[in-house]
Design goal:
This protein has 141 residues and is of the alpha+beta class. It has four helices and five strands, in the order αββαβαββα. The protein has a five-stranded mixed beta sheet with strand order 2-1-3-4-5. The protein binds tetrahydrodeoxyuridine. The site of tetrahydrodeoxyuridine has 15 residues, from α2.
Length: 141
C-alpha cells in the first residue's frame, strides 16, 4: 500500500517544479524571475516561467506559461498551483493570471505563493478573484 507523503508546501514536488523552472525565466527588463507550476488531475505537473519582451506588454507571466504547457499536453483542469519569486513577501498572481487560472480551476483550488527564502501564503482561486466573470454570465435567460 502506498503512503502519501506530506510536505510543507515550500518543499512539495509542486513547489520544487516552480522553483526549478524559475531559473529559466527570461527577465532582462525587470530582473524579477517567477516560476509557476500546476498539478492536473492526472497527477502531472506543468511548469512555466515569465518571458519578457522589449515591447513590455508582450511579456508573459509564469502562470500563463504553465497553463500553456498544460494545454499543450492535452489537460485542461487545474488541481493545485504553486508560484515562487525572490521577493520580501509571497507574490500573488496578477489580475490577468487570476482570470486565466479561474478558466481551468474550481474556486476551492489552492494557490500557494512562496518566496525563495521559504515564506508561503496559500489562498484559493475564489479568494484571489472574488466575483469572477465566468461562462455562466453569458447564458441568456
Ligand atoms: N510576473 C509573473 O510572471 N507572475 C506573477 O505572478 C507576477 C508577475 C512577472 C511579470 C514580469 O515579467 C515580472 O514578473 C515583473 O512584473
Amino acid at each position: 500500500m502506498s503512503k502519501k507523503t506530506e510536505h510543507p508546501m515550500s518543499e512539495s514536488p509542486l513547489m520544487d517544479a516552480a522553483r526549478a523552472v524559475r531559473e529559466k525565466a527570461y527577465v532582462p527588463y525587470s530582473d524579477f524571475k517567477v516560476g509557476a507550476a500546476i498539478r492536473a488531475p492526472s497527477g502531472a505537473i506543468y511548469s512555466g516561467c515569465n518571458v519578457e519582451n522589449v515591447a513590455y506588454p508582450e511579456g508573459t507571466c509564469a502562470e500563463a506559461g504553465a497553463i500553456a504547457a498544460m494545454a499543450a499536453a492535452g489537460e485542461y483542469r487545474i488541481e493545485e498551483v504553486a508560484v515562487i519569486a525572490d521577493s520580501p513577501a509571497p507574490v500573488p498572481p496578477c489580475g490577468g493570471c487570476r482570470q486565466k487560472l479561474k478558466e481551468f480551476a474550481a474556486g476551492d483550488v489552492k494557490v500557494t505563493m512562496a518566496t525563495t527564502d521559504g515564506k508561503t501564503l496559500t489562498m484559493t482561486v475564489a479568494e484571489l478573484l472574488p466575483g469572477a466573470f465566468g461562462a455562466e454570465h453569458m447564458e441568456r435567460g
